[in-house]
Task: inverse folding
């Protein structure tokens, strides 16, 4: 049981940051930004680059996150804001295209091979009888710290209140003197930072390659949609659901259900678990698990 | 007494804690023109949305010529002959005025009709465009014409749908007086042809000219049901529009 | 060299059918399908599965049609209560699920290795003349699709599609059954996509899951956006332009002595750059949609 829970926590950490970033961005700029998946790829590559120049890992990661946040703001101003005038679907296609350009840039500069962050190899720690590596703990700590900071920002600070007001009713917020554009930029910056941080979390406990973002895309969308797009805290819950489903699909023996001794879901189908949840969610709960509204037309 | 064509019973609708329709009953006779009045926010548009299926009611029933339509999607209700227009008609930007009017009449517009190459009957549409003085803008994008022309177009399109009951949401609000006459004439013609009209309207001149019966909503409740000339003496209507303590009349400015 | 030109022309024509199909959905009806390649895959696997069960091409085509009708109806059902962007994500994930199945059901689909050795449709003794005949068939299928779709979109049915795209609420107020419309569009668009897949399978003689990557869908999207959403001629020209550029990439690589990553990166730049560039600078595409074209 403990190993399963540890797997679920680790996997939730993988998905949750990018899902929160997606949902937070959507709350103010109403389109699903596919380029976020590439921010989660570019982040760790930049961190790797800065670390290879001799920067300590924490400084390298911090610099990479800030750089990606700035890229996110820049792209929003130059590309997505303009595309959004033609509709959210067009903006989504634009964000997908932007993602391709990131992949192309990484392909040419970093190449298709996987890399690892340099960590001294240590014996895994023992957590309730299960081995957990230092980098894994680090990744979980990064996620937790990010959530606490984000929650504090959203619910305790002025900018958070302005952001939630703007998300609920942009016109009213503007009328009350909130600088909506500034709020949007802060949130877009944060979404870039969160996505990059999520990517770094994945990279420190495994490897980094140019396909990370692509692999992340559907689980992250599934998590964000389950939590209700535009509800950043819901996305964490969505990530937990997806991680649980994936982990259980991978580890449970379904044999007894059909009267056989063993039946495991083939490993290759486990990634499809989140796709399937996504399709089911879109069929039955397109506005997330927490909203139960039926819109006609 | 003519038969009842549209019958709403005990309609309830609330948005969150706000009760917008509170047990509304409304029976509309075939061939009549009924004005639906009430102060801003009294629930007129919501009632129209619920009747035509664009909003699901929380309770109550709507029936059209005796059969219940409450659970149907808006498109099915429209196909059964209960058609509506919108207060602020939005028109497509990549379709011409003529194309919108053509699309409004669904006859022979199926996939099969298209594949066998059935020609589109444009003669009637062109006549209509001529009548409405929309012929000069017939080939312009439907979103590019004036607000009044959009209202005219949306009413003509609704009529091209051959409804038995037409619900209009402020058909002349914000429309230039010359166009307004067109709209009144068009509605009178349609009614003479047998179309029942339910009209949300603020303009009392328009209501007196067209309607012989008015129903008044206030805060989600039906407070009056009488001929238009009796409205000014109806105590609850006067109260709803003027308030208990306001001494001078509040004139509503059309949006 | 002429054989290479014939190859590029055949592939361009097959993609042009896919672009026409996507353009009918996205350009005319506003259905943002990110799983277009799955419709194509129904055709390829229809042909491949019939071959691996020792059935003829006719059975393969029929199987492809059955598969594509099922997928198209599933797509349409998902569109019932989803906004355009959500529907895009839904179709994308169905495409990925189908590709996962194709990759993993090794006993049926041959897994990642796919199914090879599918015979050419026209065995004339010389491979070149067989390919020429196939190209003629592909061209005829493309023209037939173009003609049929033009007929659809210039009719009143076409008007209802555009109304669904622009003002679905108005379409509902006019009494159009939006679910039924989506279903019909998906079916009409799915048929040529499956036919393209079927012909592709018999042309390449190999079918595999790598042909069904989501990125292939975005190649088709680029063709449609570059050509002009809502224009049949645009979709065809977009397909030709993109395929010709793709064909030139390896030559450029050799000419400048660039590393092999360059080919993959260049394809991404062409697709991504083409999409963003046109969406930002010329959103109407090379051949803009005609407004007011339906006059009877």
Result:
């Amino acid at each position: 049981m403990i190993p399963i829970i540890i797997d679920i926590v680790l996997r939730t950490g993988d998905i949750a940051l990018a899902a929160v970033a997606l949902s937070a961005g959507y709350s103010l700029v109403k389109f699903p930004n596919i380029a976020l998946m590439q921010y989660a790829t570019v982040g760790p590559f930049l961190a790797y680059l800065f670390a290879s120049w001799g920067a300590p890992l924490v400084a390298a990661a911090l610099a990479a996150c800030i750089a990606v946040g700035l890229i996110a703001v820049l792209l929003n101003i130059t590309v997505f804001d303009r595309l959004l005038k033609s509709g959210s679907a067009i903006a989504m296609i634009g964000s997908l295209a932007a993602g391709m350009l990131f992949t192309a840039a990484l392909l040419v500069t970093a190449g298709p091979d996987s890399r690892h962050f340099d960590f001294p190899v240590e014996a895994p720690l023992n957590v309730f009888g299960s081995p957990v590596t230092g980098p894994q703990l680090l990744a979980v700590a990064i996620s937790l710290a990010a959530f606490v900071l984000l929650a504090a920002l959203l619910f305790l600070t002025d900018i958070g209140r302005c952001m939630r007001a703007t998300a609920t009713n942009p016109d009213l917020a503007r009328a009350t003197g909130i600088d909506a554009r500034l709020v949007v930029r802060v949130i877009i910056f944060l979404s870039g930072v969160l996505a990059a941080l999520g990517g770094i979390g994945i990279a420190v406990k495994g490897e980094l390659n140019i396909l990370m973002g692509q692999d992340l895309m559907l689980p992250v969308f599934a998590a964000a949609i389950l939590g209700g797009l535009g509800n950043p805290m819901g996305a964490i819950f969505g990530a937990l659901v997806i991680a649980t489903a994936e982990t259980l699909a991978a580890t449970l023996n379904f044999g007894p259900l059909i009267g056989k001794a063993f039946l495991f879901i083939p490993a290759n189908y486990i990634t499809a678990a989140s796709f399937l949840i996504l399709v089911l969610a879109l069929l039955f709960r397109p506005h997330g698990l927490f909203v139960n509204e039926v819109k006609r037309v | 007494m003519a038969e009842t064509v549209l019958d709403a019973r005990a309609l309830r609708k609330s948005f969150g804690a706000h009760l917008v329709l509170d047990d509304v009953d409304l029976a509309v006779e075939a061939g009549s023109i009924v004005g639906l009045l009430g102060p801003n926010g009294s629930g007129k548009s919501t009632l129209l949305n619920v009747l035509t299926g664009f909003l699901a009611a929380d309770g109550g029933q709507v029936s059209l010529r005796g059969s219940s339509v409450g659970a149907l999607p808006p498109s099915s209700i429209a196909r059964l002959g209960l058609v509506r227009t919108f207060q602020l008609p939005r028109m497509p930007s990549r379709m011409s005025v003529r194309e919108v009017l053509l699309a409004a009449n669904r006859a022979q517009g199926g996939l099969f009709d298209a594949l066998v190459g059935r020609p589109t009957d444009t003669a009637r549409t062109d006549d209509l465009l001529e009548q409405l003085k929309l012929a000069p803008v017939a080939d312009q994008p439907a979103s590019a014409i004036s607000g009044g022309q959009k209202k005219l177009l949306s009413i003509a399109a609704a009529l091209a749908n051959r409804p038995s009951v037409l619900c209009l949401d402020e058909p002349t609000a914000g429309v230039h007086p010359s166009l307004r006459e067109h709209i009144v004439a068009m509605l009178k013609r349609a009614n003479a042809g047998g179309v029942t009209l339910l009209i949300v309207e603020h303009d009392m001149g328009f209501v007196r000219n067209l309607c012989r019966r008015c129903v008044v909503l206030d805060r989600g409740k039906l407070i009056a049901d009488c001929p238009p000339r009796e409205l000014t003496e109806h105590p609850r209507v006067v109260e709803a529009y003027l308030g208990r303590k306001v001494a001078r009349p509040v004139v509503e400015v059309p949006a | 060299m002429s054989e290479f030109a014939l190859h590029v022309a055949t592939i361009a024509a097959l993609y042009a059918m896919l672009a026409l199909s996507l353009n009918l959905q996205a350009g005319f009806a506003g259905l943002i399908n990110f799983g277009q390649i799955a419709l194509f895959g129904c055709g390829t696997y229809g042909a491949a599965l019939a071959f691996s069960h020792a059935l003829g091409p006719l059975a393969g085509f029929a199987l492809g049609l059955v598969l594509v009708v099922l997928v198209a109806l599933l797509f349409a059902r998902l569109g019932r209560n989803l906004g355009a962007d959500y529907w895009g994500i839904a179709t994308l994930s169905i495409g990925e699920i189908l590709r996962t199945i194709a990759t993993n059901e090794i006993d049926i689909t041959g897994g990642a290795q796919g199914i090879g050795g599918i015979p050419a449709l026209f065995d004339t003794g010389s491979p070149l003349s067989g390919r020429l005949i196939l190209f003629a068939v592909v061209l005829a299928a493309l023209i037939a699709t173009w003609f049929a779709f033009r007929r659809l979109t210039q009719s009143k049915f076409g008007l209802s599609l555009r109304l669904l795209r622009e003002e679905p609420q108005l379409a509902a107020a006019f009494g159009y059954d939006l679910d039924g419309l989506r279903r019909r569009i998906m079916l009409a668009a799915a048929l040529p996509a499956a036919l393209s897949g079927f012909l592709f399978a018999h042309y390449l003689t190999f079918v595999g899951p790598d042909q069904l990557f989501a990125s292939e869908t975005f190649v088709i999207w680029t063709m449609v956006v570059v050509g002009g959403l809502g224009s049949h001629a645009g979709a065809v020209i977009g397909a030709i332009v993109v395929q010709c550029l793709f064909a030139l990439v390896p030559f450029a690589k050799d000419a400048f002595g660039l590393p092999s990553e360059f080919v993959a990166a260049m394809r991404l730049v062409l697709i991504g750059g083409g999409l963003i560039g046109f969406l930002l600078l010329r959103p109407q595409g090379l051949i803009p949609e005609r407004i007011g074209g339906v006059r009877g």
Chain C has a mean pLDDT of 92. Chain C touches chain A through 47 residues (CB under 8 Å).
